[in-house]
Amino acid sequence: MALAQNMPLLSRLVSSSVAIASHAGGIIRDILKKGELGIVEKENASDLQTEADRAAQRCIISSLNKCFPKITIIGEEGEEETLDTSDKVFDPDAMPAVNVKCPSELSSLAEEEIVVWVDPLDGTAEYTQAFECLQSGHQGVCKTLETTCASLLDHVTVLIGIAHSGKAIGGIIHQPYFNYQTPGGKLGRTVWGVVGGEVGGMPLTSPPEGKLIVTTTRSHSSSTVNDAISAVSPDEVLRVGGAGHKVMLLLEGKAHLYVFASPGCKKWDTCAPQAVLEAAGGVLTDIKGIPIPYHSTAPHRNSTGVLASAAGIPHKEFVNKIPQHVKDNLKA
């Protein structure tokens, strides 16, 4: 359904991104089914890229460029994956439009003012591990990974974050494997949010009272990360993959805090989740409580870590609990 051009730019961009992210999720599922992931190393052996990352990014960026040619787009997989290849373009008008209410203060933005941060497949490590586990014939609990093979696919998300004046203002989180536990059920869910507006695509749930559940990295632990977690005195720690997945746990009421005192995260990991979380009333900053900048010229790496809290959680109180030596170890 075509979007009316007199709608605010942000409303049209979020609605189109919902459709494009959902389509990219289908690409990710198709490549896993075919069984040819085309894995290559990027910075190191733990930083992988698959054909699913590359194909999803080509689709997302080519499609956004076609619809919004003047926005700035920064994708995780580099400039070689941003070429506007006509056969990779998906027309978001092929899917029903999402009714996105735009706050008045964001209703007159121009394309040239927008920066979009794209992570086409957040949770690549879990995606590849799930594939290898399932290929080996495991169907239940994998002793090596200490989890069920298929559940690793819960960690996979497609992230499209929208920023203006260096601030995250809109976000789309698509979960390609949501609902995989339901035989014959429709796979995939797309959640979106506009800061100062609303969250769509899912019901919001508050985390349980009387306890503190923290989510953090499952693959980038360190003494600094562990010191930060210990300092907030959690009752339970969920070690999972993907920044998008961790923030989804906050939105689903399964965790209160996301604590990551490490420079391992990038802007494309946090822009979309931050916007959705803040639209829901939560907060996401660096580990020192300082806002993360999303200007097009901002360093890609979030060198001073991530601290996120669900709606109703006193964010500043937990910032103050992070030890000073942890904050000092993370330099901008």
Helices and strands, in N-to-C order? HEEHEEHEEEEEEEHEHEHEEHH
Distance between the termini: 44 Å
By DSSP (H or I, 4+ residues per run), the number of helices equals 8
Average pLDDT figure:
89
Largest sheet: 6 strands, mixed
Features:
single chain; 332 residues; five-stranded mixed β-sheet; globular; alpha+beta; 8 helices; six-stranded mixed β-sheet
Please, could you describe this protein's structure?
- It is a single chain.
- With 332 residues, the protein is of the alpha+beta class.
- It contains eight helices and 15 strands.
- The strands form four sheets. It has a six-stranded mixed beta sheet, sandwiched between helices. It has a five-stranded mixed beta sheet with strand order 12-11-13-15-14, with helices on both faces. Strands 1-2 form a two-stranded antiparallel ribbon.
- Strand 5 and strand 6 form a beta hairpin.
- Helix 1 packs antiparallel against helix 2 and helix 5 runs parallel beside helix 6.
- It is globular, with a radius of gyration of 19 Å.
- The termini are far apart.
What's this, in brief?
Helices cover 30% and strands 20% of the residues.
Task: Please specify the SSE layout and strand pairing.
Blueprint: H1 9-34, E1 40-41, E2 48-49, H2 51-67, E3 72-75, E4 114-122, H3 124-135, E5 141-142, E6 147-148, E7 157-164, E8 167-175, E9 189-194, E10 199-200, E11 213-217, H4 223-231, E12 236-240, H5 243-251, E13 257-260, H6 267-279, E14 283-285, E15 306-309, H7 315-321, H8 324-329
Parallel strand pairs: 3-4, 11-12, 11-13
Antiparallel strand pairs: 1-2, 4-7, 5-6, 7-8, 8-9, 9-10, 13-15, 14-15
Helix pairs in contact: 1-2, 5-6
